[in-house]
Amino acid sequence: PEEKAAQDAAQAADAGQAAAQQAGTVDPSRPMVALTFDDGPQPSVGNRIMDCLAQYGGKATFFMVGDRVGSYKTEVRRMVAEGHEVANHTMNHKYLQKLGAAQIQAQVNQGNDAIQAACGVRPTLLRLPGGNHNATVMANAGMPMIQWNVDTLDWKTRNAQSTYEAAMTAQDGDVILMHDIHGPTADAVDMIVPALKAKGFQMVTVSELAAAKGINLENGGAYGALR
Ligand code: NI
Fold first, then answer.
1. What is the per-residue DSSP string for the chain?
2. Whole-model pTM?
3. Residue 84 catalytic?
4. pLDDT class for 174, splitting at 50, 70, 90?
5. Annotation marks residue 179 as catalytic
């Protein structure tokens, strides 16, 4: 009976945690990571990722390419409806360090406009294609630039097992980079999300992570791990 009571308590705690995440609340006293996905939307992959996160109670941040979102509005709206963060990965996935000030601003603003037009939410975070930046990019991005500190190299290996192993090196406050345009990445997420949960990690959006850690994300600032 004692064992049963402990099991019941553990189940209740699990249910409580799932409910808390459903309500958009994060427990700052428990470890957390931000799963981030670049280069979408791509419904065949993104919907699988969201199915998995819905099942286990987690949120992600999707850094989307503006010129793709108009074709996949249903997926983008689902991101918003399920509490994920919609974020900007420029309008055309241009390497911004090769552009001048006006072109940089246009890539950022058009990306925000496209995402807002698709789902009604204007992004507050930017991820630079390739992570590439220089002084002109820093001065003209006009948004917080979210880099990463756990690089799964999923785009390169296209291998679920190696993507999984890379993601599982994450620690509290880490920002994990993946790409929601490759099928093997969705296969990896099916392993990563339950495994992170079993290790006690909350899976939160980048904005939730920054807020929980008391970090103010400033326009023109670049950020890796948030701890
Ligand atoms: Ni990219």
1. -HHHHHHHHHHHHHHHHHHHHHTT---TTS-EEEEEEES---HHHHHHHHHHHHHHT--EEEEE-HHHHGGGHHHHHHHHHTTPEEEE--SS---GGGS-HHHHHHHHHHHHHHHHHHHS-----B--GGG---HHHHHH--S-EE--SEE--HHHH--HHHHHHHHTT--TT-EEEEETT-HHHHHHHHHHHHHHHHTT-EE--HHHHHHHTT----TT-EESS--
2. 0.90
3. no
4. very high
5. yes
